[in-house]
Amino acid sequence: MKQIVCFFKSVSPNQLANPKCQLEKVLEFKKWIENEKILLYTTFLSVNEFCVSLRMNLAKWLRDIESSTEKIITPVTPKIPVDIKSIKLENEELTKAGNEINTESIELIENAWRLTEEGKLTEAEIQLSKALIKEPKEYQLLNYSRFLFETGQLDKSLVMINRAIELSNKSINDKFIAKSYSYKGVVLKIKGDYEGAIGLYEKALVFFQKIDDKQGIANQLGNLAIVYKEKGNLVKAEELLNQSLNINTNLGCDEGVANNLTTLGNILQTKGKFEAAIDLYNRSIEVSKKSNKTVGIASNYANIGIILQVQEKYEEAEKVFYKALSLDKKIGRLEGVANQHGNLGNNYLYREKLDKAFEMYSESLRINKQLGRLKGIAYDYGNLGVILRKKGDLNGAEIMHRKALKFSEKIGELKGVAIHCGNIGSILLLKGDIEGAEKMCERALKIDEKVGHLEGIANQYENIGDIYNYKGKLDISEELFHRAIDINKKLDRFKKVAILYGKIGDIKINKGQKESAVEYYKISHKIASEKQYTQIIDLLNIKMNNLKL
To answer: For the segment 76-118, what is each residue's pLDDT rounded down to a tens digit?
Structure first.
């Protein structure tokens, strides 16, 4: 069965609330697609958005044909992972804060969220449009914007939020102003505008403090912490998280506690404190199970999988990633589905399963572009660049990594900038551009040292060691490799340790110290044998046999 994708132009709330004959037919067709689930569909806001979406879907279709001519594709319109209980509670708060919200509007919005949960998105948006046209107030606008956000229509969501902010400022309603700023901050964070998100979260925090809304204060402190963590300011992030965790614990807010524990785990993971991080992830999972928060459970399984992967427990990590993917698919969380495809791509890449890795990264890139997630797009381009490099296409790899760097620089995501700079540097070294390679790797090292990213620091010591080795400065190169080994041992990155001992052996050969070289090769061989790194073992056997001749 061939995959068929329908493209629908986004229409205004006025048109949806009072559709004319032709639009009614289109809406009925969309409802039929949602109910029958035999076609895919997507919505676009502009001509450019349509062109991008069309290219992406055509590329995916061609890849599917190339990978298997007998592959059967069963399109499914995913349900949106809506926490009805949470939305209902939040709407009750907004209703109390609003001015005489029409009962019919409230009923329309409640019905819209029920339909959303059932996957009947067209009917849900019609209900929201009717509520907005009947009474164009902040309550209606914030619900509509949240619906658009949950369905991946970020630009349209921003339009609604901006209208809500304008109305809230006119009515001087502090609760609605705070919520509107917070909602907009979430959208900008997803789009990768970290500075914009920080500014909006800080504005929201001021208004929540003004009205003494402790849950709102805790949420904004947590939101700010996440952005600072992404930007690499771990000290600031940890300070804000502890404040948020203290408030959430006192309020008995399980969801807030679980989120705080997860982010604290992320920080410890970045610092290389893996066992402590896993402990926090497991604590967060238990809290999420108590409150039935599937999203948090899936995310933390993925976090544990990433640590297992760093420790080179690839098969265990793969199982955990598929467990997370299954949960994200079950609730229709596209952001999570993209993340798990990226994680699985990394897993297959480390195991040299390049075609499988390419498939996973491509699917992650497709979803991230659909959602407008700039950080995800950056990492997907970077990962595709790694595959092209492994296949010998250095020019193509450099193009991909520079695309990735551009996106990471745009959102100010320092960890990503360091990774992409390091990758570009290693490619430039292979192309003979020593000066360019050194500049890129030194930049990456400075960033990794600034944010305390131990894995990155080890990688850059290795990259810069390769550069000095190329320049013939063998003593400096050897010293850098030893530094990299020390860090990788702390992180249980045994494959890297084996590779680096082998590189030191090569340096000893170049220095004419054959006996010392053999000793380093033997250390490398022992590690590789214990961990069954067959490619490293084969290479070392060739080197040691050559020394005997």
So the answer is: 344 445 555 566 666 676 666 655 677 888 888 888 888 887 7
Query: Last residue of a domain, which of 34, 67, 100?
Result: 67
Q: Name the 3-class secondary structure at 20.
A: coil
Strand partners, 8: 43
Contact, 165 vs 184, CB < 8 A? yes
pTM: 0.65
253 φψ region: left (φ > 0), alpha (ψ -120 to 50), beta (else) = beta
293 is a domain residue: no
40: which strand partners?
5
Query: E-strand spans in 162-213?
Result: none
Who contacts 497 (Cβ-Cβ below 8 Å, separation ≥6)? Answer: 485, 488, 489, 527
**Is 382 contained in some domain?**
no
- Do the domain assignments include residue 358? no
The two three-digit tokens of residue 93, written as one number: 């708060």
The residue assigned the tokens 């193509």 is 396
- Read off the amino acid at residue 10: S
* Domain of residue 196, CATH code: 1.25.40.10
How does DSSP classify residue 158? H
Q: Which amino acid is at 54?
A: L
Please indicate, yes or no, if residue 534 is contained in any of the structural domains: yes
DSSP letter string, 319-384: HHHHHHHHHHHHHT-HHHHHHHHHHHHHHHHHTT-HHHHHHHHHHHHHHHHHHT-HHHHHHHHHHH
293-328 pLDDT, tens digit per residue, is 888 899 999 999 999 988 889 999 999 999 999 999
Residue 135 contacts residue 99 (beta carbons within 8 Å)? no
What are 285's two structure tokens?
A: 């999972």
Q: What are phi and psi of 5, to 5 degrees?
A: -120, 130
Domain count, the chain: 3
Q: Hey, what amino acid is at 532? A: Q
Averaged over 131-135, what is the pLDDT?
A: 85
